[in-house]
Amino acid sequence: MTSDENKLKQLYFIKRILFVVILLYVLMFFFIKASSFSADNADRFIYDLRYAMSGDKSYDTIAFWDEDIVGADIFKGGLVTLTDNTLAVYSRGLYRYSAHSVVLHTPVLKVNDTYILAFDRGGTVAYIADSFDLLHTLATDGQIIDAGMSEDGYTYTVTESYGYKARLTVYDEDMREIFFWDSSDCYLMSAAFADDMIYAVSIVPNGAYIDTYIHCIDYTSGKVVGENIVSSAMPLSWAVKSGGEFELVSDDGIYIVDVDSMQRVYSFAYAPERLIQNEDFVIYSYSEYSYSPASTVVLVDSSGQELFALQIEELSYIHSAGRYVQLISDGRLMILDTLGNTVLEKELDIESSRLITDGEVFVLLDADKAYRLDLEIS
User: Fold this and answer.
1) CA-based angle 335:339:341, to the nearest 5?
2) Residue 216: which of 250, 233, 240 has the closest Cα?
């Protein structure tokens, strides 16, 4: 056997070993990630593997050139951005998976663990996408007030409806209409999915005040099965918590709402200036005195227990993602645990309009660039 034949045989053997190693890695990956397996996740993994084997590098910065980014969020560890004409999805390494043409005048972007939703507030079109494909384009009869999606692909729209205050419509994962509900007395604002229920949030003028109504609707039958009223309170935020309960944040406090009951679990002593709600916490800030440069940042859990209250100077940003709280104060990023202890602190040398994070991935976004921050939380 010649030396060239030996080299070819060795090369073939090395390729076989490499193939087996990659195959084992893929099988191990899917075994570990079986609970979150989906065609989209598989496509992302294969794309990332090919990208890594091509020798191309990941990026710390991406430029948007002349694009006017009006919406951005973290999606599956990567970045998704929205302009009035483009919906783009990026990997964790900030290389682009896909870009889709859209037509939006007042773009709104929402994401969950499975899907991306972009819609035109005041318009009549909504788009549903994943990492690579524009899955559905939905055209509504009335102008869209709000829209949202569940993890399993169900969609709701709140639209204007002739002769009524508004209409709530629910669609299945194939964009087939399941039911619609016209509200004759309440001004519908938004909704949220919870198992087989959807909670609709609306307001009703009551003299000089506003009352907030929460309608609980079984969207498999389209029947209203419960209604709760928060008198003299304006809704600020709402979400379904990790335990499945619906939580409403109004200008006077935090309420836990069930089909036939409601309980205020927390009261605001001062009006919130900034407020973020996720499935586990509500974080808000207030200033006791209008002339004070210091703000008090408060974290409240789902039971209404105040976990910490800290005074922060020159506060410009608050967020809560994962099990941590993110603050920006005087150009400094601070990450706190749920007891208010600082677990990471970093000076930001980049002028940024905002920080986008899911608690693990951190991206600074300004007018024409996105910067990925490599942070390790101990």
Assistant:
1) 45
2) 240
Tell me which DSSP letter residue 3 carries. Answer: H
Are the C-beta atoms of residues 263 and 255 closer than 8 Å to each other? Answer: yes
Gyration radius of the chain over CA positions? 24
Q: Tens-digit pLDDT profile for the chain (378 aa)? A: 566 555 555 555 555 555 555 555 555 555 444 445 688 999 998 888 888 888 777 778 888 876 788 899 999 999 999 999 999 999 998 999 999 999 999 999 999 999 999 999 999 999 999 999 999 999 999 999 999 999 999 999 999 999 899 999 999 999 999 999 999 999 999 999 998 889 999 999 999 999 999 999 998 888 899 999 999 999 999 999 888 889 999 999 999 998 888 999 999 999 999 999 999 999 999 998 877 789 999 999 999 999 999 999 999 999 998 789 999 998 899 999 999 999 999 888 766 668 899 888 999 888 778 888 888 776
Q: Which CATH architecture has domain 269-347?
A: Beta Barrel (2.40)
Phi, psi (rounded to 5 degrees) for 195: 55, -125
* Domain residue limits, the chain: 3-32, 269-347
Tell me the C-alpha distance between 246 and 159, whole Å.
22
pTM above 0.70, yes or no: yes
Q: How many residues does the chain have?
A: 378
On the CB side of 351, CA atoms within 13 Å amount to 2
